[in-house]
């Protein structure tokens, strides 16, 4: 049955590609033919999974790039098919008819809620957990709920590669004897003394709920923390960003390796660091990893330059239902230094499922947009009135706010009236509504 | 008008702080002088002189920490409520008001004993989704978000009747509780911002009179967009 399942999957994948169909059907059929197919494959000795609320795709893409630059054959679920059917499709597509996976390394971007199911069939040798934030609560409940669910995805023997700066992620090794490697960002010139943002997920220890103290913060609850009550604290890091400049767009890893970034943001620094830590743990030399990471441009249209009329701007693809992601984009817009106009577009809250849920707008630090360099703000899309209600409480002069439900008219308004450089903040679910109405220029630059 | 906002830094799961910001403004628009006191874990509590108490939603573990802190004051809280203090508990803050909470591991946590129900959390089961709730005192139903892992058993005078989404036990049916001036609902987030009609009703109750008509066009348009979107989707199966 193994051979038939593999053959069926390959054929369906081939046919699906011709028709431009998704990647979960071939795997689903293969699993029907042989529910234990994944356990019968001969897998490479390096299987690395990445999970967490934010940065999974960017981190996985960077790891794949570094490994390939260093001559390794890599397969990964680049279509974002991180449920079991999608994983089955991509593994079977990559294996011989005898069931041997051809790649040197398997990379898996794993959905937080599905990792426990995927890893019942095979186990990663290395497991990166980037962070746990308030993300898509309409599906995910809350970060501690996801923390509990992820417990079932961790198996004995897997090496954990964890973000030391996230107090909740740092709880994973408690009560386990898995090998653990920590990565983190040292205190930098732009670190803050106390947690920032509209809410305080770092106010209390995730382990004992005692009040937590911070030496410094990078954003939200990410930083150097300790709990006087139970002793939970930031661990010593094996891999660290030791120096960085947002203005000059570079970071230094482990005090030795300078990496130039096409896009500078603390967020992107964490993804770069996670990718570096993962590649080092897979056996690559620091110099080689840093060389491949240097100048690596983000793909998938996360950062796209455009023109609205003759006015230049950048799209910062963020995630609806994810305040941390929005906060990061707002920091980029406010930190630009030039006069800027900011467009916030919320039209379809999700591209995968329907929801009308807008509570997350109250977790975003829109108050930062009261900075004097932000000359104008445009609120657009179906949920522009929820945005307007939120901005009404943000301490921003109403004269600077323009509300326009229709995306086309919002873009026309920008083309005619925007003051300074334009930053457009929206989600993957909505970005094409913007990009189809402006002149896109190039990706990966800002 | 004196407001007590408990566990502002702990029980603030999803934009709940917006409720207080909006309530403050709407009361001020009625000519009230408003002060908000924030108290949290480690603070001594006193309910004397307050007109309104608010507690928002938290994670299950945060809720237990809040409950442990609040329980010694349950008697004082009941006295304040009997004396006419208004209170709104949203999300799993409402679940603290009952006799007990049984958590996902089966551990029993004594509740505040203000109402006669047991909140039973289920390990690995969670109900998340958009919601529409009818409230008998006003015409427009409420819109919102349910995100909970507990069902209630026991006799509770309900606050809402669910048009869409999960009630106190099971789909639809009764939701939350209303006992005198004490209101509780599983709806989480900025419930008052999202529901200007309910907000106005609550302000009227606090003032003890019909509020002066004040228009909040953004909130009203936002409610309409969401209500219409939800009703259009009501019978369409979820795509997840």
Give me some keywords for this one.
heterodimer; A: about 450 residues; alpha/beta; UDP-N-acetylmuramoyl-L-alanine:D-glutamate ligase; Protein-Tyrosine Phosphatase, Chain A; 2 domains; nine-stranded mixed beta sheet; 13 helices; 18 strands; about 30% helix; globular; B: about 240 residues; Rossmann fold; six-stranded mixed beta sheet; 6 helices; about 30% strand
Describe it for me?
The complex is a heterodimer of chains A (446) and B (240). With 446 residues, chain A is of the alpha/beta class. Chain A folds into two domains: 40-293, UDP-N-acetylmuramoyl-L-alanine:D-glutamate ligase (3-Layer(aba) Sandwich); 303-443, Protein-Tyrosine Phosphatase, Chain A (Alpha-Beta Complex). Helices cover 30% and strands 22% of the residues of chain A. Chain A has helices spanning 2-19, 25-33, 56-69, 84-93, 115-118, 137-140, 143-151, 266-281, 286-293, 323-335, 384-391, 407-417, 428-435, and strands spanning 46-51, 74-76, 105-109, 126-129, 159-163, 180-185, 213-219, 222-226, 239-245, 250-253, 257-260, 303-308, 311-318, 340-345, 374-380, 401-404, 421-427, 439-443. In chain A, the strands form three sheets. In chain A, strands 2-3-1-4-5-6-9-10-11 form a nine-stranded mixed beta sheet, with helices on both faces. Chain A has a seven-stranded mixed beta sheet with strand order 16-15-14-17-13-12-18. In chain A, a hairpin with a 3-residue loop joins strand 10 (250-253) and strand 11. In chain A, helix 2 packs across helix 4 (84-93) and helix 8 (266-281) packs antiparallel against helix 9 (286-293). The longest helix of chain A has 18 residues, at 2-19. Chain A is globular, with a radius of gyration of 22 Å. Chain B is of the alpha/beta class. Chain B has one domain (2-233): Class I glutamine amidotransferase (GATase) domain (Rossmann fold, 3-Layer(aba) Sandwich), CATH 3.40.50. Helices cover 28% and strands 30% of the residues of chain B. Chain B has six helices and 15 strands. In chain B, strands 2-1-3-4-14-13 form a six-stranded mixed beta sheet, with no helix packed on it. Chain B is globular. The N and C termini of chain B lie far apart (45 Å). The model of chain B has no long low-confidence stretch (mean pLDDT 96). Classes of the chains: A alpha/beta (446), B alpha/beta (240). The interface between A and B is large, with 40 and 48 residues.
């Amino acid at each position: 049955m193994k051979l038939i399942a593999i053959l069926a999957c390959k054929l369906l994948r081939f046919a699906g590609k011709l028709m431009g169909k998704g990647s979960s059907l071939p795997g689903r059929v293969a699993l029907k033919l042989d529910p234990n197919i994944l356990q019968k494959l001969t897998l490479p000795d390096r299987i690395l999974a990445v999970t967490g609320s934010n940065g999974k795709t960017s981190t996985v893409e960077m790891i794949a790039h570094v490994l390939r630059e260093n001559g390794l054959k890599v397969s990964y679920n680049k279509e974002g098919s991180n449920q079991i059917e999608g994983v089955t499709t991509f593994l079977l597509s990559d294996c011989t008819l005898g069931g041997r996976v051809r790649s040197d390394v398997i990379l898996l971007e794993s959905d937080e809620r599905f990792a426990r199911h995927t890893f019942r069939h095979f186990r990663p040798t290395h497991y990166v957990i980037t962070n746990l934030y308030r993300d898509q609560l309409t599906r995910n409940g809350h970060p501690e709920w996801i923390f509990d669910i992820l417990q079932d995805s961790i198996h004995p023997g897997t090496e954990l590669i964890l973000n030391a700066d996230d107090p909740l992620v740092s709880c994973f090794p408690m009560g386990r004897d898995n090998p653990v490697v920590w990565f983190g960002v040292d205190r930098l010139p732009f670190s803050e003394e106390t947690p920032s943002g509209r809410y305080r997920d770092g106010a209390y220890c995730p382990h004992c709920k005692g009040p937590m103290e911070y030496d410094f913060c990078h954003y939200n609850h990410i930083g150097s923390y300790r709990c006087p009550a139970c002793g939970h604290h930031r661990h010593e890091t094996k891999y660290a960003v030791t120096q960085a400049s947002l203005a000059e767009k570079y970071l230094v890893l482990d005090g030795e390796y300078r990496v130039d970034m096409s896009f500078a943001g603390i967020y992107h620094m964490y993804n770069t660091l996670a990718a570096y830590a993962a590649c080092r743990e897979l056996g690559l030399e620091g110099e080689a990893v840093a060389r491949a990471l240097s100048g690596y441009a983000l793909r998938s249209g996360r950062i796209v330059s455009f023109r609205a009329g003759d006015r230049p701007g950048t799209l910062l693809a963020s995630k609806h239902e994810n305040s941390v992601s929005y906060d990061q984009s707002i920091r980029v817009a406010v930190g630009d230094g030039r006069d800027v106009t900011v467009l916030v577009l919320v039209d379809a809250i999700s591209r995968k499922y329907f929801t009308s849920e807008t509570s997350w707008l109250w977790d975003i630090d829109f108050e930062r947009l009261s900075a004097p360099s932000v000359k104008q703000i445009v609120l657009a899309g179906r949920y522009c009135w929820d945005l307007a209600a939120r901005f009404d409480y943000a301490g921003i002069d109403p004269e600077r706010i323009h509300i326009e439900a229709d995306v086309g008219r919002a873009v026309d308004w920008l083309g005619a009236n925007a003051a300074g450089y334009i930053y457009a903040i929206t989600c993957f679910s909505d970005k094409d509504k913007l990009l189809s109405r402006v002149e896109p220029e190039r990706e990966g630059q800002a | 008008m004196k407001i007590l906002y408990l566990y502002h830094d702990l029980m603030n799961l999803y934009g709940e702080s917006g409720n207080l910001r909006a309530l403050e403004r709407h009361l001020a628009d009625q000519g009230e002088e408003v002060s908000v006191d924030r108290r949290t874990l480690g603070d001594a509590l006193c309910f004397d002189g307050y007109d309104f108490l608010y507690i928002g939603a938290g994670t299950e573990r945060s809720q237990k920490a809040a409950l442990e802190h609040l329980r010694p004051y349950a008697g004082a809280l009941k006295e304040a409520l009997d004396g006419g203090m208004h209170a709104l508990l949203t999300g799993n803050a409402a679940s603290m008001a009952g006799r007990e909470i049984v958590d996902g591991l089966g551990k029993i946590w004594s509740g505040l004993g203000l109402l006669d129900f047991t909140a039973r959390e289920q390990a690995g089961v969670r109900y998340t989704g958009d919601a529409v709730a009818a409230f008998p005192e006003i015409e427009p139903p409420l819109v919102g978000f349910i995100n909970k892992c507990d069902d209630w058993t026991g006799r509770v005078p309900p606050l809402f009747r669910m048009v869409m989404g999960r009630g106190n036990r099971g789909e639809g049916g009764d939701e939350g509780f209303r006992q005198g001036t004490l209101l509780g609902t599983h709806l989480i987030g900025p419930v008052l911002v999202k529901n200007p009609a309910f907000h106005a009703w609550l302000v009227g109750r606090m003032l003890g009179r019909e509020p002066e008509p004040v228009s909040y066009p953004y909130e009203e348009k936002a409610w309409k967009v969401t209500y219409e979107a939800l009703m259009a989707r009501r019978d369409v199966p979820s795509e997840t």
